[in-house]
Batch of 3 targets.
Target 1
Amino acid sequence: MSAAEALEPETILSVENITLSFGAVRAIRDVSFDIRKGEIRAIIGPNGAGKTSMLNVINGFYHPQEGRIMFRGAVRKQMKPHEAAAGGIARTFQNVALFRGMTTLDNIMTGRNLKMDKWRTSLIPAMFYYGPTQKEEIKHREYVERVIEFLEIEAIRKTPVGRLPYGLQKRVELGRALAAEPDLLLLDEPMAGMNLEEKEDMCRFVLDVNDEFGTTIALIEHDMGVVMDLSDRVVVLDHGEKIADGTPEDVKSNQNVIDAYLGVSH
Amino acid sequence: MEFLNLVLLDQIRDILEFPSFFFEVVFGGLMSGVMYSLVALGFVLIFKASGVFNFSQGVFALFAALTLVGLMTGTMPFSLEKSLPALPVWLAIAVTFGVMIVLAILVERIVLRPLVNQDQIIMFMSTIGLAFVLEGLGDTMWGSGVKALDVGIPSGNFMVGEIQIQVFDLWAAGIAAFLVVVLAVFFQKTRTGRALRAVADDHQAALSVGIPLRNIWVVVWSAAGLVALVAGIMWGSKSGVQFSLSLIALKALPVLILGGFTSVPGAIVGGLIIGVGEKVAEVYWGPLVNGAIENWFAYVVALVFLLFRPQGLFGDKIIERV
């Protein structure tokens, strides 16, 4: 083993030769890439490139017809959503998917779902509430408060999320994902539809999450400036195929990528 | 003026003249209202968590009551002979609750799971089918005769001033109130409760935080089974365990329209309003049309509500940010 390989950071997840079709439509064609522990990995590409489908494969919503997924050393054909969640994968959605009727606090508390003790929160102790159930609630509420403080959303703690402006909803959704203390965080266009100020806030949060918690992040983003600033490595998809993979500088100067984004005359 | 006298002023004069009688009527209404609330609560639980209107909730109550009576008298299911040891009340109730949980698991496995992602109307139809299957099963297992149920809730009555109060009714109200508090805490403040509400809001997001849909459905149907058991005990002790018990489900419908399909407090208040309303209407306005107002009054109230406030008193008004 050479010195360079020894220094190579550990791979947390890799997808190998993934092909996903919906009927006759090929959403993803033979795509492979890996995500290393501790990095920010961007997935970019024009509309319809298969970026969100890729996240859905990683998180188990879609089951690819071909290929395999290696996660934490275990190789499998497909993920299941609860397996992914239990294995430490948390995510946000392109069109905010919060529990609209619930408050910010309750939404983020659901993120603790898998961390909470099953017995202490089951029906019988919960019927009495005071005692084990309440203790468990308080314990996890403390962590949730840290998340709320980190994201600077103290003021909207008790507001039903359906009433919040879009930018804040996205932040609450990030909070719910963070509450699960994930090892791998999947962000589907975390800055879409935001104004400049909100974008800058969100960038800061993403970098802080990566720095402070050491969370590995895979994100889909359209804003090239954001991608170049944030990410360690970038994978580029176009029409379901991988056309480039590398550092932001590599990708920026790659002719295939320029063609895909600007269009090429034939 | 004469017409006004006939339909309004006479009655008001009556009420003012004999207020204690009026209060007795109201009190009686409140008590049957508590019963309606209990049944409506079962509907709300399932509707909140899965968006399914469970038509079989009334039959659940009947089935629970039948099972309880069977266990207490030591009847062997299907053979209808007394060949088992009669269980003491508390044990019989515990075992019946167990049966209701098993029933919830079976419903999830056999009825709901194959219908995931289908239209709500299809889910609704399947619960109608479930109602008939369960009704038949109850009959075959425990016989179709009217059975008395006595779980030891004290009876008798006493007077407060000139108003007669049934001890049983007070117990019923107390038990119902306790059940509501327990369920409210469970839904608002616990992991499972939050998971239930999360599933009702967004399936995908719920899956992404690791909430298993199937378990949640079992929990909801078990909770509805518990409510059905309590409702079955109350109604059964009051008027015997018989087929008509399952028809209380039809009375819960106007209660839900009044209170809102998604609101626990709505089910309670709606039940009380319907209970009091129909008793007062029967006693004071019934004679005008030769009685029997009690049977349809609730539905008229529901119709009025559908016209002016379709989401009910406490129902969620859909707020959407554009």
Note: Chain A has eleven helices and ten strands.
Target 2
Amino acid sequence: MDKKEFLELLNKYNAGLANAEEVAFLDAYYNLFDHEDEAFLNLNQAEKENIKNEISQSIKQQLLQEQIEEKRIPLLVKYKWLAAAAVFVLIGSITLLLLNNQNPTDQIAIVKPKASKHNVEPGSNKAVLTLANGKQITLNDKANGVLTKQAGVVITKNKDGQLQYQITSEATAGINTISTPRGGQYQLILVDGTKVWLNAASAITFPTKFNGNERRVEIVGEAYFEVAKNVGQPFKVKSKNQVIEVLGTHFNVNTYDDEVADKTTLLEGSVKVSKVTNGEVLRGNSKVLKPGQQASVSADQSQISVEIADEDEAVAWKNGYFKFNKADIQTIMRQVSRWYNVDVEYKGEMNKDLFVGKINRSEHVEEVLNILQRSKINVAIKGRTIIISN
Amino acid sequence: MFKSKENKEADDLLLQQIKENNMLAFDALYDKYWEQVYNAAYKRLKDADYAKDITQDIFLQVWHKRHDINIDHFAPYLFTAVRNNVFKWMQKEQRFTPIPELLAHLSVAKDNADAEVLRKEFVIKYEALVNTLTPAQQEIFRMRFHDDLTTKEIAEKLNISRKTVQNQLGKSVSQLRGSLDLLYFVLMLHVYN
């Protein structure tokens, strides 16, 4: 029997058209593989455990996605650490409680967003551009067109609200900064064609012209980059704890001071993340990321850790929503605080519940509070302060 | 066949709880069987990503179909599910592992008794498959291999020439040519006897 005959047979079998002899033959053929090499032959226990968790997480992710699509409404799903049960069934794992669906009062009703009572609007496109000469320009959704010309660099705002840098022959490099307040975000296209999305309470500093053998920018807060390819002039993104070296690629970098670590999530291409200690990169403190990986760098950890990323979660903000994948209440509220420009107060000890879900960033704060309430979080708002009590 | 590590009752209980939407029971079932599912797929496809996909799909199916399926014996159900998924992948990826290669691996297997059973079972099923080709070939094939008649005896019985018998047998056997060296030689001996 050759390959062609075998595949014809397989076609028949998969179409449900195989006769008894053909089925029996394929069955016997399948069994011949029983003595082939085991999958875990060259793997240690930790690697095996990784595969197990990777598949399990991907199953949960898929089920959750289906759950959300079925309901077509925003919700947060509560995860809970199961103290006793965890020991023998779930070691180190997490349970999706909403999938149990046993309590009818947990059913989520569709609530139409109403006009904001509290005057707390979601964030919008706004930022301040600081030019090399110190002049500041307020950027918002209003006027398009040429904003300014400086030393041969023309800065225009295109109809998509992006800030675009164009260069003329007599240009010299000057340093510009764009910073967003809490409740603001902004997009820009650098002079080399690199696209940058800036999240709330963030800033990017960059030269109007990239001279020399590298393209170097600095950020605080969170940004998503689509770096224009230029092998001869690597792109470098510096933040407090790390420097990212890039050829041409798509990635997100979250360096907020109030988050536990600087997180770089790679979607396409390849980047090298290096930890910066006291202003310099120490030998061996670099990791090259593959697409789908996330590097975490924090000041109090000596090594860079690399994990499988939830890409969707990492760039959710850029696509207009919050996404939480097993986030605690503090993690959720840090994002809410930055986007709605509100402060958050906690009353009493918070428990360790973890949540999963998506919320549209264009919702009024009331809707977000509703969602939190429906997820059994005790929440109130007073002026620009959200109070969470246990 | 997959081994149910504990008894069948334990699986039945978990499946009952899964029907009641209990995610914990689903996790427990995954913990218990994921390795066998993954390993079975991996041995056949030699590709970790495919094996992961198949494992994911199979457990997702268990959850999706939890209200509809009536799984009396979970381990055999899984075994069949993996096999069908593996066959779908083989078709999609146009994957064929030549049979002599598999037989060669079997001959050096650690558990020789088990390997020998698999090999014999395969040879029998292969013959049976060849026998299904055409009714005429089938009849001659059966007379030759099952009734152990010589080609001359078959020719006399069917009132055809010995040459025709040999041609028909030759056609059947040609199905084996190429990859199944072992069987091919065994059967060739029979054709000219």
Note: Chain B has ten helices and no strands.
Target 3
Amino acid sequence: MNDFGFGPDEVAAIHLSLKVAIWATLASLPPGIAVALALARGRFWGRDLLNGVVHLPLILPPVVTGYALLLLMGRQGWVGKPLASIGIVFAFNWTGAALAAGVMGFPLMVRAIRLSIEAVDTRLEQAAGTLGAPPVWVFATVTLPLMLPGVLAGAVLAFAKALGEFGATITFVSNIPGRTQTLSGAIYAYTQSPGGDAGALRLVAVSVVLSLMALLLSETLARSVSRRIGGMS
Amino acid sequence: MSAPPALDLDVTLRQGDFDLQAQVTAGRGLTVLFGQSGSGKSTLIDLVAGLKRPDRGRIAVDGVPLVDTAAGLWLPPHRRRVGYVFQEARLLPHLTVRQNLLYGRWFARRHVTAEAPTLDSVTDLLGIAPLLARRPAGLSGGEKARVALGRALLAAPRILLMDEPLAALDEARKAEILPYLERLRDHAGLPILYVTHAVAEVARLATTVVMMNQGRVRAVGAPGTLWSRPDLMDLTGGAEAGSLLDAVVGGRTADGLFQLDTAAGRILVPHLPPHLASGARTRLRIPARDVLLSDRAPQGLSALNILPGIVADVREDADGSRVVRLECVGAPVLARVTRTSADALSITPGQPLWAIVKAVALDRGS
């Protein structure tokens, strides 16, 4: 990377951004699928409330979400304090950046997955049931493969969101170079310092390239999945 | 101890305005649930499959109880071992034909006996071996229907449930599937519950018919018996009403006509479907509107088939025409005549008449 003239903090920021985005995406997939399933299929008291809570990060100012994370997950937070006592620390740590990025991307991921679940023909699941498949098997062999395009789309959205997250991250874990400074944070820092334009532009280019690559990868995956499903749109 | 019935059910279910109360006992062979849409026949088959739950009642297949609300028993669909062939096939789009066929095999592994059908025997029976590597999206309607049937058979079911499996297919595709269903009925020993509202399918396939109307069972019996009952004519076809006669294919006459022996007498037809060889059993349908009546033995007529009989019953139809049931040596033949003709012949029960059959439908309207 240094061949391109990146400084050590810039390389660290690129690395951190990728690490944060990948972890945020992977870690939110299981709860994302579970919540999407509950919202699409579940009939329980408080479903609308759950839907509202999941969508909060989408409509709240990111700073508010970041502050809420600080209150909840910070070293002195209701959840953060007991977690810190067993060695899991989010505050001012890259894990906190991943958490903030994951929370911000969560509504986008859940929406995409929920739509794909609602598009799955439940009559196919019934057919699998009459063939002797217990419900867990039906989910693993029918529902999950058929909703895969939506899961991919949701993962890419969450990844892109995580890559670009700024407000909640900087509020929750600050902008410490080499520790919690992601691409967005580094670009912001450059724009705040005189003569930082060249550095900002370099990182902006990296940002554009990474986002485009994620998009292309998802398109390719989606195409191969729909080919495998065969003629399904 | 005698063998338990293939299907024994007695259920009630209320869904909104629809109220189903049915008691059915069916033996081996193919039992048709016959009725118009909304009669409850599909609901009944869904109750057997476990896709719907009855309010009250019990269902047993081959003596194995699947549902008994009094005992608090309700087996979920995946533990019932019913092979369900849906009208829209419902093949899994992300799997190949082979994977679809074998989908239920794993779950049925404990029940697969030496006589159970194998992938090879099923693909041979249904002629789908060339399709194994393909995906459902690329199959024709007839191919999908055959794969769906094979998939149900390979799950080693206790009973085969078929919900209008031919309704979505055109005549040519139906003709493609029907022989497989006949082979299944005659050779597999697997009880089949078959939902349809098509008389042609009843004529060709049914061992027993359960006639349904507005959530109730109106009658149960052999197709020939039910189709000759004037009190069931509102269900057996109205304008399309006719009698069903069991027949054995005989030899050919000197001038090339085919003989069909029925209880009512010998019927001659110019053509036979190719699958009917001499000695084969079949069922022919005589539409009531294609039967003329005469009060003396007719002579000098072009019609081939003239059957003597005794008037058993005269009934006025909704449009004012008369439907006459003639007992022809024990086999009933229905004739539809106008009121004017009925008056001119002064048709009364007990009167001898001759039925002149203008047209005979064999299997699928050939």
Note: The radius of gyration of chain B is 23 Å.
